[in-house]
Design brief:
The protein has helices at about 35-40, 45-50, 55-85, 95-115, 120-135, 150-180, 180-205, 210-235, 240-285. The protein is an all-alpha fold and about 290 residues long. It has two domains: about 35-135, no CATH class; about 150-285. The protein starts with about 30 loop residues before the first helix and ends in a 7-residue tail after the last helix.
Amino acid sequence: MAQKFGGKYSPSSAPTSAKDDGFRNATRSRAGGRVNLLFIAPLPLIWKAFTSEPIVMVQYLAALGILLLAAWMTREGMFAQESYDARKVARRPALPRKLLGSLLTGLGLAVAGFASNGPIEAGIFAVVGGLLHSFAFGLDPMSDKGMEGTNRHQTDRVARAVEEAEEHLRAMSDAAARAGDRDIERRVAAFQSTARDLFRTVEEDPRDLTAARRYLSVYLLGAKDATVKFADIYSRTQDSQARADYLALLDDLEKNFAARTQKLLLDDRGDLTIEIDVLRERLEREGLRRDS
């Protein structure tokens, strides 16, 4: 098993384990190179703008701003889709960001084309640019996921609860990064992976939300607040006792979240056994079950 190299100048000489691996179930983000190119591609318009007459300069600068906004909107749309794909129960994004990115890309190219050529070229650039953007990045999810054939009210409650819980986890990540300690970031990521196991269990059976609600709201809110306070203290003082106390808190949280997930899975298995026994009894009463 691989271990982290430790030594005199290492922040921590404790070996890592699979349990502490914050990259479990991690997937590579698709909001990478292609999206970053969208921020770089329109930059030559700056040169075009400042070598043109004032009216044309304003048009080029407007095109630059629109294309940069399109790139930002596209990146946010990619993040929203990754969050949607990672969950078993999810509502479609309220704002179709990738679609807006396509429209803004077409508009930005149209403005640039009008400034350099004319209205006909502007129309061609708009249509071709918008279509190529849609083909390259796809469309936003247009329907809710995991809500078919189930109680809509229950699944909607689960989706909202998980969204709020994910907000707490994102705030924890931001605070841990501010602390400036890689081991802390790794342990926070490991706890988040355990917490998301609980999220997926609740999404699979919305009836579990009642039993898990405190974990998705109260406990995660407390974990977020503790992380923010720890980051504020540790970034200023590098207090080793505060660090040890916070790591102990993460250990306790991770154990409790894992235990709650296991309890829900066992309860679900028990419910299945009861349903099977009831069905067998009905079949026996109606004379439809044959002994093997």
